[in-house]
Amino acid sequence: MRSESRSKPVIMLLVDSLMDEPLKEAVKSGQAPAFKFFLENGRYEPEVVSPFPTMSVNVDSTLLTGINCDGHKVPGLVWYNKQERRIINYGSHVRELLKLGIKRSAKDVFYNLNQTHLSKQVKTVHEELAEKGIDTCSINALMHRGARDGYLHVPALFSWITGLNQMLNINAPQLFSYGGFSKLNPRNRSLLKKFGFNDRFSVNELNHLIDSNTVPPLTLVYFPDLDQHVHKNGRFDVKGVAKVDRHVQNILNSFRSREDALRNYIWIILGDNGQAWISKTKTEALIDLRGLLDRYQIVKLKKGVAADDQIVLAVNERMAFIYTLDKRKLSLEQLAAILEKDARIDVIAWKNDANAIEVISGDREGKLTFKPGGAAADEYGQTWTLEGDPDVLDLTLQNDSITFGRFPDALARLHSSFFSHEGDYLIVSAKPGYEFIGEGSPTHVGGASHGALHKQDSLIPMIITGTDSLPKYNRLVDVKEWIIRLVETENAADIGGKG
User: Fold this and answer.
1) Cα 264 to Cα 440: distance, rounded to the nearest angstrom
2) What are the pLDDT digits (tens) for 28-48?
3) What CATH superfamily classification does 10-74+118-275+454-498 receive?
């Protein structure tokens, strides 16, 4: 158990798909005593804005780097790499991974995502703190690049199936845990479920650090299980939150008292993205992009890009990238005109030749064109030039002041997505109740899904104990800078001593 000291390590619990309403209901109904304890002893921010697309790999990349996808270059869970002429998929569904090739997909997930695709031009919180002589830890986090030479120990069976080497050299934080591929606690046996990528494994690893008094100044712990519960049971899945709470209780029980946990550590508990409800009627819920665009030749996953192909679909649940392979023969405007006829599509956007973003909707009349810089300022201090109808993105424009409605921080989030990777593409985002499908896409009829620009996908809660400080704005993109400030403040004496 950790002894009293001046500095308090920061422990961040990142709970996939944690949302405000089911969290509050779980607490109110007595099913979440651990969350209740933290809420009663900390500060609660119910509406923190997640990056777009609201998919975990992009969200977590922004959390770690403090920049949107135009800077960190991880566009989404599924995207098209123009240079390599292939679809990148980090794990939407096993059907799609098998069609794309399990060996290539496994390398994308377990190596390329962190070591190649995440831009080397930006530093993660682990890398930045390492430069200051401050140790960090990552437990089960999807995004985890650090400054230390590390390894993934690929289980023999998994290596045989995927073709991955049994030892993968990676850059990792000083303390690094990643399911059965790298663990801190030699006695952690929670590997049967998803090779250790589960909440129980995460908790066992953190408790090992707490019990051995080796918690570093920053520890980021990822809880993956709630995501699938919400996908299946819907966005108000209180039982799923209660299951997570039992794991958090397990963490608190590793202390002599709960007050010790508060006294000795700064705790930050937050979601990564929300989820929107999906209709129970299959034909209504699923927006089949292959059907809407069936007059064109669409790339087949197994075959890859062929000479006569015209379109690539990269479906990220409730959003999608739609690429034209030759915009001289098939323009983005042509594709947008077809999709605009479907009222289930909330946002249809593309980048024009002047690098401005044009936006229309299947649900609303009008068109909005915007670009950074200009007379209008939003609630985050970002300035914009707007032309056309602000209602398309549910913006209120009054005296050059922009207020967001259904789409939080819509301009910056949407703009960043058009500079996250090369290519000529539309971005489409569905209304709540609906999700996109392509070839082999996962579906969540009657449940919940995410990826879109809408506030149901985009707003997540955050609980903070042990400090009065806050991020500059309630956005995940602002959390990294705040965390570094927190950790540096808590470790000022240690840093000075190392100088």
Assistant:
1) 48
2) 999 999 999 999 999 999 999
3) Alkaline Phosphatase, subunit A (3.40.720.10)
